[in-house]
Amino acid sequence: MKLAFTPASPFARKVRIAAIELGLIDKIEFVPTKVVPAEANDEYMKITPLKKLPVLITDDGSVILDSYVIVEYLDELAGGGKLIPASGPDRWKVKSDHSLLQGMLDSMLLCRYENMVRPKELKWQAWADDHWNRAWKGMARFNDKPEVLSRPLDIVQIALAVVLGYADFRYADCGWRKAYPNLDAFHERMLERPSVKISLPPKT
Amino acid sequence: MKLAFTPASPFARKVRIAAIELGLIDKIEFVPTKVVPAEANDEYMKITPLKKLPVLITDDGSVILDSYVIVEYLDELAGGGKLIPASGPDRWKVKSDHSLLQGMLDSMLLCRYENMVRPKELKWQAWADDHWNRAWKGMARFNDKPEVLSRPLDIVQIALAVVLGYADFRYADCGWRKAYPNLDAFHERMLERPSVKISLPPKT
Hints:
The structure is a homodimer.
Chain A: E1 2-5, H1 10-21, E2 29-32, H2 42-47, E3 55-57, E4 63-64, H3 67-77, H4 89-117, H5 125-143, H6 146-150, H7 155-170, H8 176-179, H9 181-190, H10 194-198
Parallel strand pairs in A: 1-2
Antiparallel strand pairs in A: 1-3, 3-4
């Protein structure tokens, strides 16, 4: 299998951590791929018109997206029910919490594009504030869920570690550790995992 | 169950069509909810910090998001495997095609925010063009998949009908029918379903 990725992509990082934790990392070839908002990448758009990372290309040439579906696919390859509960009420809690984290990441990326990619004179502060607020309030939600932070590893914890790593990467001064001490302790515990440590975004 | 929704939300429309087709519509109370980019909605953000529609609130008070997870949940309530294959290679094709359509809708909404919600003087044309291009090339992808357009109803067809309905709603002059005749014929067939017809976005 091949994974189109870049080390700076939090969505690709999520898949990478999952693949390591599921014991599948050696079956995946990582293909560095560059996508930039408001710039074309015609070659990659033949694979996915969305021009988003990551996608997984299976050995028979099927293209799997998005990052969550890729994790579901890898989870099934690994036997099923490893990072996402296979059934029961927990399944919907985990899926919903993951959707929340996915949306938080989307908002953090929109916020970054607004602040750091879009031409400065075209910045709309209210839009950036709105999206940052979604991510920030989402962090508060998880800070207040000690049961989520301490249970055995699952996709919610992986996605949450990725959100916090992305906050460090792109918003180093946002102060999440001070505001959310439970998340700080959780993140420290997650960093003890080689999968989480090795996949940290590059230094800026 | 309660669904936070607005008739203008394509994501909420997808859930509504699925609920009708699964025979679950009478179990859902629709709660009109207003969310606007760059404007606060503190009450709704207590339910979901993402401030996005729709969310489903189950009878025990659980909050399920996003629209795809809600459809999965309803599909399971209806017995499973109705709109999303329960297993096999088709499962990943359907999930990936749905993710593509979800991303196309995200891009169409970003494009609308750029063109019609953001203050005019802050518009970044290259960003709007990039996102429109993703949706447009995505449509081409489905126009060239006759097998997807003609098989029994599933979540991909529902999401595709929603994408095309949203194109009519917000980009009435984009010319998708002329550019993509297979999608035009598909959309006409889909409109024969009461679920698709009754859920059309309001006239603008």
